[in-house]
Design goal:
With 366 residues, this protein is of the alpha/beta class. Helix content is 42%, strand content 14%. The strands form two sheets. Strands 1-2-3-6-7-8-9-10 form an eight-stranded parallel β-barrel, surrounded by six helices. A two-stranded antiparallel sheet has the order 4-5. The radius of gyration is 19 Å and the shape is globular.
């Protein structure tokens, strides 16, 4: 093993440290703007900086091993002048970055997409590496629709793009997070979701092999297997989600991959934590899993923080409460990644634990 490959594998091991996961705070300017607008906050660079500061200066190191940043945030600083990248490093949190450039329509099936950003990717990755970044993320979005969706063409196209991205990242010294998100949009049941997850994951792994990507220095970021958000049948309890998810992973992902970092995909803050906890408990009860089963949550680590901050953004005490919430959410999910979350102890303040589903996760015409 070359020294560069060994270094990448070491970073992957740090990102999958026991009891820790990833903070996905890489929302594009447009996406974060929609969330700020919903909270009654203008989408300005300074407001985005202040919001990000709540997380990067909070005491999150106990439950967070890495944070995925948007490019803008890489070059922003806290109010005291400390660069965000340094704020994270001081807590032992590795900085990462989103490198894709968003979704565009693909093929003839309505709603199917591919991802932009391969052009100039190597140059961007080298620049990010010089800025202190140690890993990257690329998101593909696949939709279950029609009889068998996603289509085979869409699954293969996105798998090839993910593999090309991963190979470029590793050549530039970055660990790739490979995110083939199967969207929760739709009325399908959990069985169909599981079948789609298996096809998508298997296509991704095959493409990674063909592209000579080092699996030991690659992390996967899939959605948990669960029914579509508009499914009208019986709900899927955490134990059912856990079994369906583990079945799909065991049929699709080789042990060489060190970590599965689940996205929360629109689940409430508490439900994402409960499901993750149950997945880890089910894995332990059935003899363990070859990969670390952890998290790369965005909304499920942020929604309550924004709820607190929006009430009085000029109040120091409110900012401290928001930071404390960020730390508490990180700790709860860190515990769940080890199967040690205690039911009923979730710090979320959102009443009813409602869904955080967003209608703009896939591609929408401008």
């Amino acid at each position: 093993m070359s020294s560069s490959t060994a270094e990448l594998c070491e970073v992957a091991q740090q990102l999958t440290a026991p009891g820790k996961g990833l903070l996905a705070s890489d929302e594009s300017t447009g996406t974060i703007g929609k969330r700020l607008a919903k909270a009654g906050i203008l989408n300005t660079e300074e407001n985005r900086r202040q919001y990000r500061e709540l997380f990067y200066t909070a005491d999150i190191g106990g439950g967070i091993s890495g944070a995925i940043l948007y490019e803008e945030a890489l070059y922003q600083s806290a109010s005291d002048g400390t660069p965000f990248v340094e704020c994270l490093r001081q807590q032992g949190v590795l900085p990462g970055v989103k490198v894709d450039e968003g979704l565009v329509p693909f093929g003839e099936v309505e709603g199917e997409t591919e991802t932009r950003g391969l052009g100039g990717l190597a140059e961007r990755c080298r620049r990010y590496r010089r800025a202190g970044v140690r890993f990257a993320k690329w998101r593909a979005a696949l939709r279950i629709s029609g009889e068998h969706g996603p289509s085979e063409a869409a699954a293969q196209r996105n798998a090839e793009q993910l593999a090309e991205y991963a190979a470029v990242c590793q050549a530039c010294g970055l660990v790739p997070i490979v995110e083939p998100e199967v969207l929760i949009d739709g009325s399908h049941g959990i069985e169909r979701s599981g079948a789609a997850a298996e096809r998508v994951l298997q296509a991704c792994v095959a493409a990674l092999w063909r592209s000579n990507v080092v699996l030991e220095a690659t992390l996967l970021k899939p959605m948990m297997v669960m029914p579509g958000a508009d499914h009208t049948g019986s709900c899927a309890w955490p134990k059912e989600v856990a079994q369906a998810t583990l079945t799909a992973l065991r049929r699709s992902v080789p042990p060489a991959v060190p970590g599965i970092m689940f996205l929360s995909g629109g689940l409430s803050e508490e439900q994402a934590t409960v499901n993750l906890n149950e997945i880890n408990r089910a894995a332990a009860a059935s003899g363990g899993a070859p990969w670390r089963l952890s998290f790369s949550f965005g909304r499920a680590l942020q929604a309550s923080v924004l709820e607190i901050w929006k009430e009085d953004r000029e109040c120091v005490a409110a900012m401290e409460r928001a930071r404390a919430m960020a730390a508490a959410l990180a700790a709860a999910n860190g515990a769940a990644s080890a199967g040690r979350y205690e039911a009923g102890s979730h710090p979320s303040i959102l009443s009813g634990g409602g869904s955080l589903r967003e209608a703009f996760r896939g591609w929408r015409a401008p």
